[in-house]
Amino acid sequence: MTATIGKTTCPYCGVGCGVNLTIPNSSTESVPPVSGDLNHPANFGRLCVKGSSLAQTLQSDDRLLTPIVKGESVSWESAVGTVSDKIAQVVQDHGPDAFAFYLSGQILTEDYYVANKLAKGFIGTANVDTNSRLCMASAVVGYKRAFGSDTVPCNYEDLELCDLLILVGSNAAWTHPILYQRMAAAKKQRPNMKIVVIDPRETATCDIADLHLAIKPGSDAAIFSFLLQHSAQTGILDNDFIAQHTNGFNDALKQANESTPNLVSAAKFSGVSEQALMRLAHWWEQTEKTVTFYSQGVNQSSSGVDKCNAIINCHLATGRIGKEGTGPFSITGQPNAMGGREVGGLANQLAAHMDFATPGAQDLVQRFWQAPNMATENGLKAVDLFQAMEEGKVKVVWIMSTNPMVSLPDTAQVRRALEKCELVIVSDCKAHTDTTALADVLLPATGWSEKDGTVTNSERRISRQRGLLPAPGDAKHDWWAICEVAKKLGFQSAFSYKGVHDIFAEHAALSTFENNGKRDFDIGYFSQISKLEYDGLIPVQWPVPKGKPEGTKRMFEDGRFFTPDGRAKFVPIVPTLPINEPTSEWPFMLNTGRVRDQWHTMTRTGDAALLTKHTDQPYVEIHPKDARQLGIEDKTLVRLTSPYGEALLKAKVSRAISPGNVFAPIHWTQQFSNAAVVSNLIPQVVDPLSGQPESKHAQVKLEAVTEV
Ligand code: SF4
């Protein structure tokens, strides 16, 4: 008998590559268990090292196999009873906002949908936030301010079709490797294509760059403020597009003229040479087909939303949007950060891309869900949520598939919050993470290859993650656990689904309910989807309205946006620097990010021996001049201290970083060594509009460690 091949989607980054998982039918068969799906439009058969090592993560000695309450293994029935009784009690005694979900871009759209429905429609709280807040919340608000909707205009093909590709705050070579490979291949095929990297560090992505602007950390908006001003001065504005499809251009240009009146001021603000900035400006001026690709370096900032709008302004002003090879293109970090956005998985969203502030949306969603206890206003965003927990306002939190003890800023505060919370419920595949250690209730979850549902990648493409392998022990799907608790709380009919396809169909029906073509997110074509059709779902880019099963490759081709008057909006931008700039006491700026072969807090990638070879130790990158002054040698221990905590890391002395700056990867957890947890150092400073933490910029001081 030959092996069975199941098609699914990689669980790591927001590229969303298609994966073939081979399930041998006999132990003697030797077939590669994981390969890239040749037909998936994200990767066409390619996989990066993380994706191709997935088979090594399928067996774990640390699987959570039964529900555990206060340290004792219990039945699901008992655990569901404990959870639902406590939720009912705190809601009765303290109101619905005493409960919160803290979700993850790792869970599937259907999991997100039922969590959001239970909290916002039935318990009555909008306290549903997610670790995606740490990854792309600023991009969401930037799009909404400009387009009236959270809509990514481009697709991956545009990265290959453009003649100028500007990567801002993205080390795609390590964080989105398959997109990087596609960019590199396009550049090889068309050597005249220009690639510019705007990043304080010289990263691996610079290998394919024609120009690297090593900007002062956080100064990105000044570059785009200058490009807007330069576009006007050089006559490359698309005046017809501005007149017919936008509002607010004059105010945005006036601000750009004031903020960055000339090349000298822009170069000075951003810390780059005038020649280098002018080179970018010339290429921008001469190249119609331009894509600006941005990620966490832009988003994880106290002015992340403004940076996004500074980028979008330039594209609107030159009409470089809605056409092949053009557009502002934000890339998400997680496999389903986008799917969470679609169902309302952020505390300020309602459902189906509607917010609490969307006129008529609360009433519409309430009628659709027939919801008895509809939340009426925004809930708490991630950092605020954990602060409210420490203040005793949030008394029950259900954390799903994420490890906030390592990923949220200011670990000491997160610990205090979880210790104060009366009931911490954690759904996870793993028994031991830094967060499960603080849980009162542990619920065993299915993991990748067992979970069944959909994810949406960074180009709006919905793909299936398929349950191909049996769940071990008592592990259950997250959507099932949420529905069991909902039913126990008395909401039987609204949470009695026939299967995961039924949840997807309901989500699709809500997206088209009384829509009248007014919303960007419409997948109404799937509102009657059968189990068979769902099982065979082919990757497709939304919108997929009724009558358009092929989906939508590129947005805004007709120049119509989702604002009330259909026009995109320019936002005047004042470039600013990070809130916590270096001082004499804290003389270094810490930048954080990822290494090539690890993912988040290593709960999965840490199981693959191959993946630890690339970088086996946490480290801090430091410029040779700074290292010399501090008496720090390569590979020796360094103590980093910030006003919030400290970390001990090995020095990596490198010219890739500028003097006065240091870089450390985020992955290592307390299980490796408490001293290696970089989030110890990060302040809970957030963008005021998006609530996204400024994780890329923290003040620190450094000292060589002679004794530990
Ligand atoms: Fe997975 Fe991202 Fe690598 Fe693709 S690029 S295989 S989605 S980690």
TrEMBL record:
Q: Does the keyword Iron-sulfur apply?
A: yes
Q: Which domain of life is it from?
A: Bacteria
- First-to-last residue of the parent protein present: 1 to 708 of 891
Identify which cofactors the protein needs according to its UniProt entry: Mo-bis(molybdopterin guanine dinucleotide); [4Fe-4S] cluster
Q: Which UniProt keywords apply?
A: 4Fe-4S, Iron, Iron-sulfur, Metal-binding, Molybdenum, Nitrate assimilation, Oxidoreductase
Q: Could you identify this protein by its name?
A: Nitrate reductase
Q: Which residues form the 4Fe-4S Mo/W bis-MGD-type domain?
A: 3-62
Query: Which residue ranges traverse the bilayer?
Result: none
The answer to whether UniProt assigns keyword Iron to this entry is: yes
